[in-house]
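Example record

Each entry pairs one chain with its bound ligand, calcium ion.
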Amino acid sequence: QDPLTRLPNSLLLEDRISQAQRKADRDSSLFAVLFLDLDGFKTVNDSLGRQFGDLVLIESAQRLAAEVRAQDTLARLGGDQFAVVVEGLEQAEDVAQLCERLADTHERPFDLGRHQLRLSLSMGIAVYPQDGQDPHTLLSRAEAAMDRVKHAGRNGYRFFEATMDSSVHGHLELQNALRQALAEREFLLHYQPKFDALSGQIVGVEALIRWLRPGSGMVSPAQFIPAAERSGLILAIGDWALDEACRQMRAWYDQGHRFKMAVNLSAQQFRHARLIETVRATLARHELPPAQLVLEITETTAMEEAETAMGILRTLAEMGVGLSIDDFGTGYSSLAYLKRLPAGELKIDRAFVGELTPGSEDAAIVQAIIALGHTLGRTIVAEGVETVEQRDFLAVSGCDTLQGFLLGRPTTATALSELLAG
Ligand code: C2E
Ligand code: CA
Ligand code: CA
Ligand code: CA
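Structure tokens for the complex follow.
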């Protein structure tokens, strides 16, 4: 079992920090939030490939876990970032010893079969109560301290200081701007069609959020979804996107269109207790048959806390909502899990489609995913189709649905309506 998926995620971490806060208030102790970032990880991941990257992360998590006491919390923030909550401190300085030990654990080279790697950790520390009174502030400030370590040449730790607040302000500014963007209705959805590989018919559209930020033009979701996730604003933004997509689908439905509307869910939305109720209420509000809606979640999200995820997915499937596993092929879900997963659609990650040439390794992977998916009765979608060669290869290989710039870019509802009208 992958030890990474068993670590608490950022949502759980916030709960733990709130708990630590109550406890520290009770027995007037201190606690520290450590923000950890692996140095050099991206280079490893990019040069050796994701498989090796994942091995490094697992090994690193194990080394960290061995130093963290049972009463403390080690969490995975995502990517190569971890956090530790260290409780029951008498003085802030006491946490420095732990940082030394965590650094030591990473001095031993990482042994990956043919490769031996040297990595280190950059660590930032924020201490409750002096550095912040809530989980967000403590984490942001621990991150700001970590940033300083990075800039000073990596490998080490630092305590948060007030002069570091400018980078915190960068985060807070973006969060405030996002909050305002919701109120001022600066978000909009673009829609990218999905085509049947054989007939060329539009079988679905995917809603992709855009932010028309005054003075900055169109901001891509890659630039603000992570900040929205970290601040919890993703829930309100996600509610808006789901509602807007369903409203638009209702309009197209009334014009006689029966393709499906796909909406992306981030990990936080997916885990949130009220997801099922929100989906149910939104469909009801627009009097939309559940089968018109497809929810896209990434393979990684579907695999984190697999049993919980399975339960949520099953409930959605029972409601009649379609489910699609996005970025498929990057998360290494097991066959056994995949078989039980009630998702009608697998979306092959763009990374595999990008380098599709007949006879290549990626071509073999894509064909294997298609064969496997079909055996399990799933529809296979390829995203990121940019060339005629890719399209033809995918169609000949039996891929069911195609999506990409070659066939149709994400565009406004108005432009897509015109296309649909012929
Ligand atoms: P995704 O779900 O994997 O979406 C596909 C991304 O690939 C989109 O980027 C799309 O514009 C882009 N794309 C489509 N065809 C091609 C192609 O042929 N070539 C290339 N190079 N790219 C192509 P976009 O719109 O920037 O969205 C990025 C990510 O942001 C999405 O990845 C999704 O994870 C997230 N996102 C977008 N909208 C929402 C939303 O409403 N809610 C949430 N939670 N996440 C969203
Ligand atoms: Ca890193
Ligand atoms: Ca998607
Ligand atoms: Ca994708």
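The pocket of calcium ion (ligand 2) is lined by residues 37-38, 41-42, 80 (CB under 6 Å).
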